[in-house]
Write a structure and sequence with these properties.
The chain folds into two domains: about 5-215, Spore Coat Polysaccharide Biosynthesis Protein SpsA, Chain A (Alpha-Beta Complex); about 230-305, no CATH class. The protein is about 40% helix and about 20% strand. It has nine helices and ten strands. The longest helix has 26 residues, at about 250-275.
Length: about 300
């Protein structure tokens, strides 16, 4: 039996993380499971309390917020599983989740990464993710399959290759991870798992969806208000993803598209709406890409302001 290491990252949400741990205890029947929780520099350190509550789990406290990639990368250092299952702390397990994913990885050695079907926790019959279409590099756009559709089993026979895994729940084969290296931490938020997908796929592995496996995600169905943090990293990382992964001709097509369409359109909209804070972050995101190489680890954003 292959060992599975479950890694989740906590940031100022100890109760949410504890609910996940309770969910795993209630629904998981897979015996060879290691659970690792990384605290990403929360304002109040929950780890001492967790050591007492959950003596069988592994906990790691980071003193600063290292982002999604950084927190998970540190968790990998404690993992000894053959397969590493990265789950957001705001997810909840269902019965058979781990077993289903492991079975496909065991049966198909070409799979490097695999995600289950994801439904919204607050609307449990609504799909969040049933795969991704391939990336359109000229515009840096792709589509999340099944998003916001009622789940009537329409994707339950879609097991197989997909464009990308979903960062909220992704199981990775250790051998693929060791060949590709860890997630690129400079992304910090957004696009890091897609960049990782591309690197693993370029090594000859496949990216799969298992719609028979299900996890619930507490992300809201409604789109939240835009923030300076999101505006900066979504734009910075969208450009950075293309710089790191797109073919040469597609890169220049995207640059032209972004410069001629996306940047002026969004900038004018933010100015018209009086969202000068978002306009500033859009400009900052573009400037970062103009002044830093694609392998730079400089975030260009004051991390101490991320609460």
């Amino acid at each position: 039996m292959k060992k599975v290491s479950v890694i989740t990252v906590n940031y100022n949400q100890p109760q949410v993380t504890e609910t996940l741990l309770k969910s795993i205890a209630e629904h998981n029947k897979y015996p060879a499971l290691q659970i690792i929780v990384v605290d990403n520099g929360s304002l109040v350190n929950p780890v001492p309390d967790w050591h007492e509550k959950y003596p069988g789990h592994s906990f790691l406290r980071l003193e600063t917020n290292r982002g999604f990639a950084g927190g998970n990368n540190e968790g990998i250092k404690l993992a000894d599983g053959d397969y590493i299952f990265f789950v957001n702390n705001d997810t909840e397990f269902t019965e058979g989740l781990v077993e289903s994913l492991v079975t496909l990885l065991d049966q198909h050695p070409q799979i490097g990464m695999i995600s289950p079907k994801i439904r919204y926790f607050d609307q449990p019959d609504i799909i969040q993710y049933a795969g991704f279409t391939p990336m359109e590099y000229h515009t840096a756009r792709n589509k999340c399959i099944g998003e916001l559709e009622p789940d009537k089993g329409q994707y339950d026979y879609s097991t197989g290759k997909t464009g990308f895994i979903h960062g909220a729940a992704m199981m990775v084969r250790r051998s693929a991870m060791e060949k590709a290296g860890l997630m690129f931490e400079s992304f910090f938020l957004y696009y890091e798992e897609m960049d990782w997908c591309e690197r693993i796929r370029n090594l000859g592995f496949e990216i799969w969806l298992d719609p028979r496996a299900l996890i619930y995600h507490k992300e809201s169905v409604s789109v939240g208000k835009k923030s300076a943090l999101k505006e900066y990293f979504m734009n910075r990382n969208r450009i950075l993803f293309i710089r790191r992964n797109a073919p040469l001709l597609s890169k220049y097509t995207f640059y032209a598209y972004f410069a001629a369409v996306v940047f002026p359109r969004n900038l004018l909209r933010y100015m018209f709406e009086g969202r000068y804070d978002l306009a500033k972050q859009l400009v900052r995101a573009v400037k970062w890409n103009l002044s830093h190489n694609k392998d730079s680890t400089e975030l260009g954003y004051p991390v101490h302001k991320i609460k």
